[in-house]
What we know:
Helix content: 40-55%
Structural class: alpha/beta
Number of helices: 22
Number of domains: 4
Strand content: 5-15%
Number of strands: 14
Shape: rod-shaped
CATH topology of the largest domain: Hypothetical protein af1432
Amino acid sequence: MNQEPPSDSSNSMESIEREFPKLLHHPFDLSLDEWKDSLAEGGISLKEFTSIKKIRPDSKSLNIIIVDGDSSDGDEIRALDEVCGEEIPAAIVLVETPGNGARRDEDSSSLLAGFVPKPIATEPFQISIRAAFRQTAYRLAAHREENHRTIISRNLENLTQIGIALSAEQNNHRLLDMILTRSRELTNADAGSLYLVEETPEGERSLRFKHTQNDSKTIPFKEFVMPATKASISGYVAVTGESLNISDVYQIPKGVEYGFNQSFDQSVGYRSMSMLVVPMTDHKNEITGVLQLINAKQSPDILLPDPASADENVIPFDPAIQQIIQSLASQAAVALENSMLLESIERTFEGFVKASVQAIEQRDPITSGHSERVTDLTCGLAEAVSKIKTGRYADVEYTEEQMKELRYAGLLHDFGKIGVRESVLVKANKLYPLELEVVKNRFATIKRSIQSEYQEKMIHLALGGNKDKVKTLQAELEQRLEETGNLIDLVLRSDIPSMMPEGEFDELLKLGELTYTDIDGTEHPYLTQYELNCLTIQRGNLTESEFSEIQSHVSHSYNFVVQIPWIKELRGIPEIAYGHHEKLNGEGYPRKLHEEEIVLQARMMCVCDIFDALTASDRPYKKAAPLEKAIQILKFEVKDNHLCPELVDIFIKDKVYQVVEVFVDQEYEEPEPKS
């Protein structure tokens, strides 16, 4: 290497000379006692060797090897090149008799840093030794710089690919996991942790322990919050924005502001040693988190189950990879910020959706909870369909985004009820309460008219002394009043939406033909045609026009949700909500679609919507159907070609109904076939 690394670099010769102890190897028969003290003052230790072949330079020291050029074999000297290689910082100083230059050229080694003529004089010896150590430091610095560039070059493409992957991941938890995983892959780190910076409205900052990984130990994860101060390593990085590359956290120099708490290591039998801690800085240059990598290893396959294995296998984090990790941490901070922003937007939208559902349910408390139950059931059915690997839906598998789309569609499927009159939504019986009061008052008037009519006749007869006739009229009056009471009871029974007993329908029709005369002598029917039409409704409690109004909620829902500028992954919501009342045979509403025109998610929602309508306990006009009866009705719907048989079968066999709290412990059993 010809170019010297920058002096302010951790790879500079000055820093290397400070970092590494100095070791001077010399032949046992070449005494250096004369210079022993001065060498010691310069931090140089002496080590004898009996043969060049037995020299084993220390990779953690700067090694100068003094070789007697008069007696050493040239091959032995050149062999030191292989022994030391580029990894061990070493240099050779040749001590020889003057005039031996030809021999020196013959024995030339790449490690040769100088020569000292015999007899050894102090000044040339000291100059050569200092120069040799300087060259050794230079060689190591050059090697580190080359390795630094190689690591950066090798990992630039990885960094680009990681950046793309980080920006594509939208799930916050998976993103945190990816940041740690990729950082550890680049550094061969055994473990790592990730902290997020939190700030109160008053400006107080703290660190939340958000994620951790460890190859060697299974450690239960639990979030906690710690103060963002300089007292801890991660806190120091969060406060100052400086990266820390520590070779051994148990031997942090005195005088620094941060320290390492060994209590966690002791509690799990782990040994934290080397540590690389970098700030996660976003595009505004604000620190949003701290990435902490622990225990770099030569290979990711090495495990550190105990402190002894850590002492043997842990190495410092290479300064070259530190720059890569710092760049990755910045990319991760931006990706995390984007992910958290997206998550915040989704939470806001989720709140809007739930508020919308709550607004509808406040207008229609009768069906409170219906939208969420249908959503849970439909999502449960979709998950069950995704697991099926045979049959019609073997190739159907819903992604996380598609499940989110289905969930929103479920929550909003009845939003259109906001366009339906509240009186129709909450109508419990065939007549509205005020309409029934009018009928009751009318019958009270009819009773008084009958009483008035008979009492007038009885007074005339009594004045004429015809007591027997008075008794006869009294009996007739009581009979007429009883008959009228029976008629109003018939009205009250008919007002409740249920199966009419045989004969009561005809009685209602006859009641519609009866009239009474009011006090002014005007004739009126017992029941108006509108009242009669309502009371004779055979199924349910709604008139034809009211039922059409209720059905219109589907179109209202669609017209509402279709106006929302959905992102690409959620654009199917309007169509799913629009189709949840369609039937396979085209008898559904509002578009009377056939099976091939109805999206699968809408077909699933139709099954679940019917099931919840049957089993819901909050409908005043009907009792909740038990599980067995509800499923039998679903099967009848299949026979009528209203529902998909495969979906109903999956709904039953996978016990999708158990997502509803009331059925969580229930299990449907097929009835025994009739003999």
